[in-house]
């Protein structure tokens, strides 16, 4: 794979939703390239298309028109099996609701995904503990989600997202349910994963402090990209 090629390339993406008589234009001819290793925020008013764009890039939803290439693979040309594989191995997802399985411990929540990926139990345990250590939670590996704070649950969700070693993480309002201290910790973790491991992040957010942490700031309006600028990142104050 040629690393000078973008990790994400979107061409003329459009997505419409039909509600009764009316048509909602969620994405309107979006063109977007994101290079390997970028740290990007996506902001804009509610309904401007951020989630729709992330879901399309992550292969969770198909656009009506246009093309998406992720790590050199055209999503519209992949079989559903190949798309599921790409989602499982190459893209990490982090959501506003942490989406952990309540009856499983932190370690089991992380290793569950690797089980689906076909790793042995010993490999899973080793890898789960390594990624929990990466997010600062190896000493909480045996706790269930209800025994963890919101910030800790979100960090378990990050450990799960990076367990398979993806080069791309898509995060949809990851700090929306967090207090400002936990949000700052999460953004420091994202920054470290970006700088030290080269993981590309695209983060949809309404929080101006999250936008300020990133090195490229994209705003959307009415399903279109409105502004797109590089910036000097400003770490979030705890
Ligand atoms: N499954 C759906 N069915 C109908 N309309 C939808 C669906 N998903 C999204 N939309 C509409 O598409 C538009 C874009 O929605 P989207 O969720 O992408 O916006 P957003 O910028 O992420 O908003 P928010 O900041 O509130 O999360 C909105 O008008 C929304 O109501």
TrEMBL record:
Record carries keyword Transport: yes
Keywords: ATP-binding, Nucleotide-binding, Transport
InterPro entries registered for this protein in UniProt: AAA+_ATPase, ABC_transporter-like_ATP-bd, ABC_transporter-like_CS, ABC_transpr_LolD-like, MacB-like_ATP-bd, P-loop_NTPase
Pfam family name, one: ABC_tran
CDD domains (UniProt xref): ABC_MJ0796_LolCDE_FtsE
Domain of life: Bacteria
Domain called ABC transporter: residue spans: 8-238
Keyword Transport: yes
GO molecular function, one term: ATP binding
Name under which the protein is recorded: ABC transporter ATP-binding protein
Species annotation: Congregibacter variabilis
Record lineage: Bacteria, Pseudomonadati, Pseudomonadota, Gammaproteobacteria, Cellvibrionales
């Amino acid at each position: 794979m040629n690393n000078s090629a973008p990790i994400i390339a979107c061409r003329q993406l459009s997505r419409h939703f039909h509600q009764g008589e009316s048509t909602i234009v969620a994405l309107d001819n979006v063109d977007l390239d994101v290079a390997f290793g970028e740290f990007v925020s996506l902001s804009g008013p509610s309904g401007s298309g951020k989630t729709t764009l992330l879901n399309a890039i992550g292969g969770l939803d198909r656009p009506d028109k246009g093309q998406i290439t992720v790590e050199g693979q055209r999503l519209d040309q992949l079989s559903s099996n190949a798309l599921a594989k790409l989602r499982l191995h190459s893209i990490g997802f982090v959501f506003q609701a942490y989406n952990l399985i309540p009856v499983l411990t932190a370690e089991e929540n992380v290793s569950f995904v690797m089980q689906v990926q076909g790793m042995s139990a010993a490999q899973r345990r080793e890898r789960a503990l390594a990624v929990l250590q990466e997010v600062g939670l190896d000493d909480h590996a045996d706790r269930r989600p209800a025994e963890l704070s919101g910030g800790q649950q979100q960090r378990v969700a990050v450990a799960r997202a990076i367990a398979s070693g993806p080069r791309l993480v898509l995060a949809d309002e990851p700090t929306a349910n967090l207090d400002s201290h936990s949000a700052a910790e999460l953004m420091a973790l994202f920054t470290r994963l970006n700088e030290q491991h080269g993981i590309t992040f695209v983060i949809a957010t309404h929080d101006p402090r999250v936008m300020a942490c990133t090195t490229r700031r994209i705003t959307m309006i009415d399903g279109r990209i409105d502004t797109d600028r590089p910036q000097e990142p400003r770490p979030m104050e705890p």
